[in-house]
Amino acid sequence: MLGSIFVSQLSIRCHSRFRLSFSRLYCHVPNLSGWDKKQSLSLEMKVEYERLWKQHVDNFSYKENESRPNTYILSMFPYPSGNLHMGHVRVYTISDTLARFYRMKGHNVLHPMGWDAFGLPAENAALQNGEDPVAWTEKNISIMRSQLKQLGCSFDWDREFATCDPNYYKWTQFIFIEMYKAGLVYRKPALVNWDPIDKTVLADEQIDENGNSWRSGAKAEKKLLTQWFVRSTKFSSTLLKELKNFSKDDWADVVNLQRSWIGEVDGTVFDWIIEGGAFTIPLPIYTANPEHVLKVGFIAVKPESMLDVMQDKNNSITYEYKTKDGDLASFQARKLDLVAKNPFTQENVPIYVVDGILPFPEKSDTYMGVPSVVDIDSIFTNTVGLKMENPSNNNVQNTSSEALCSKAQEMGFGGHPTSSALKDWLISRQRYWGTPIPIIHCIACGSVPVPEDQLPVTLPPYPSKKASTDAIASPLAQAEEWVNTTCPKCGGSATRETDTMDTFVDSSWYYLRFLDPSNDQALVGFEKTKQFMPVDVYIGGKEHGNKLNLYYARIVSHFLHQIGISSSPEPFQRLLVQGMVMGQTFIEEETGRYLKRAEVEFRGKDAFSKETGKSVIMKWDKMSKSKHNGVDPADAIGSFGVDTTRLLMLADAAPFSQRNWDPEGSKGVLSWQNNLYMLTSHFISIREAANNGELTHDKSSPVYLKGEEEVYDLRNKMLSVITQSYKHTHQFMVAIKSMQSSTKKLKQFPPEIVAFGPQFELALATLIVSVAPMAPHFASELWRGFLLAPGRLNTKSTEIKWDKPVLKQSWPRLDDEFQLPFSVSINGRDVLTTTMSYSKLKKLNEDELLQIALQQDKIKKLLGNKTIKSHTSSVRYERGALVRISVDGVKVNKEDTIDTFSKKGRQALAKKKKKEEVSA
């Protein structure tokens, strides 16, 4: 016994000497050869760790031409407003955590960052402060870049770009021209939403349910302007169809929202030509019955629609008519001095403004009247005295719906499946700070796209006159030298388009440019898209993630796929959206006055104004300066340190839920970090004591064997929860709770387990590695301490790379023989839970899992000879598997049901297993 202990101690000392010399080689952190055991972890210590480790934790980028699997982690790039807010901190902490996790999983991770730099705020700041938008934007980018680096985000800065860079918007203009060539971009007069504050047009989707601007909050006005549109309705059917393939867990809110935008794709749109006076304009008109287009006798539009506004000259006439039931009813109508030319027959039909009687399609202000087929249309024509003639269709051979739609598609005047609710994407903006629309207007040639070899059309210097922004015109119209040009077709005098593009066009394709940012010959190399698309995880705030950028990105991605630029029609595979970070608001109940936290006195759960003593209402609101509830990320980092701020963002709330930023809520995370630091110190102290011969152990003793078994279970259960949280559910709060619990439990094991237990050493290593993606600086220092401990035991294990820092460790693996739950449900009722080794589970597919389920005695008994109607297998290899079976004619009684993956179910399973072991 004494001899074996002597050999063990000699081995420990040899390992210790070897390890100490090697750690100094890899870490490159000066003057840190030992571990300074403090009584507790202080803010000053954390700040020092962050300073020492910063250059080591930030140095990651995608490596070209490597055999590792590619993973694309993309966070929605920010507008360079000048300062990060706490919402940014949350989004980019989550993004960085996932990027670091997948690197440790052995993936070659692309994790880029750039700037959504065009838009109104920069231009408004220029107007207010006399500052050039270019200089304003560059200054803000510089500030925010340094803040992101301070946050410890491992972005690939070599790929950085801003959408206002001509090298970027050259390709935005390229996309516009390709769409123009494909007949997907057109210009027409339209009744648009005019923001009287920001002096620009907004798309319908940028107006809220109250008719207010999404950005300024002002009541939108209706204006008649000639605008540029993208024929986004062409993609209605494919966009709606693809929604079915999106994961319900990730995309539920977005799917519902986009489905409501797109509507029921049950018809089509044909472009009619409206003629009157000196103008002709196209007018898209929806119909659920394309075959009726050859029999149209009139076109109706609603009051206040575009054509009504264009010819608001005459008063409407009130007409009375009898309904089918014989009742008297009325409607108002007036005939316009315009005609609509049928795109198939070229015949003209009259246009009426109609209020009442006609069944306009949902959310549509146009209607095709077919009196020879539809009774109510016939009643209308008879009532207003419109004499109907049989329309001619001599030039149309096949009059089926399919043939008519095909011809319209071929001729470029519609015919694509769509809904009545969806409208084309209006992209014109009457502002300076945006991508110039690459069109030249020539009196002889009309609208001519700028040749590709002349791109980009760059912005001129910012016009100095402010007056133009008070009118409905782009400030670019003042840049006369820039506006006046020559036609690329005939060489005659011409003018440039002075509207700029909606910034959503810029952000509709940036995920592709990150793949190939230095390519000056193409938007992106096709092989690059094959490597990376779709984006593996797309991360952003809920207020943006559920809205327009996802919809517009899908449209552009589908188009670029159709013309062979991108390998994938859909841009994003998984979506991770975050709720807002909310600040605590204090309102003096009597006066409604907002107070700062420092002005509030707390008495138990109640709050009072320090100044007046009056009662104060506390609630959580969106952060705002006016409510004194905003938090500057720099202040949070100053109070807690970088890693603690990151952990606070990840703890206590699921990513998709709102995060209430409460300084008092930091205690749990601070306590856990302190426990981790003390556990590492404890580990080093025990190992040093063993190294000095102050501890002995007996590997055959029941205490030692039981302790090692408990640590084995602890490590694998912890790793199972954490890996599931990182990889599948993104419930980082669950991972943190598991790590917090494991930290406390590891501290409770007896010294002989800490000193001589290989499983304890492996469990502590696993814990520190698991912390690293969330708190990279702190974990780097803990790992340094872990490596300083003498007496290494897992020297031949592949689980610990003793010569590598923590962020270069491989993500820990479950033990192959660790038992995971395997559960079966029948008709939605959980009926069986057993266990299966990890090595076996990870080799099985869904059909094999079903066969194993059907071999279970209880399942055989419940199913009898019934035929399975359907089945699915939910496999989370690190957490187990659940087979769901649907069978007609099988009733599952309450006594046959059990808990499965619930905490109660796992506890019941553990008790059952323990009883079986005792009886054995």
TrEMBL record:
Family according to the record: Belongs to the class-I aminoacyl-tRNA synthetase family.
UniProt-recorded name of the protein: leucine--tRNA ligase
EC class: ligase
PROSITE patterns associated with the record: AA_TRNA_LIGASE_I
Cellular localisation: Mitochondrion
GO BP: any one term: leucyl-tRNA aminoacylation
Keyword Aminoacyl-tRNA synthetase part of the UniProt annotation: yes
Keyword Cell wall biogenesis/degradation listed: no
Lineage: Eukaryota, Metazoa, Ecdysozoa, Arthropoda, Hexapoda
Entry keyword set: Aminoacyl-tRNA synthetase, ATP-binding, Ligase, Nucleotide-binding, Protein biosynthesis
One GO CC term on file: mitochondrion
Ranges for domain Aminoacyl-tRNA synthetase class Ia: 58-290, 422-583
Gene Ontology molecular-function annotations: ATP binding; leucine-tRNA ligase activity
Enzyme Commission number(s): 6.1.1.4
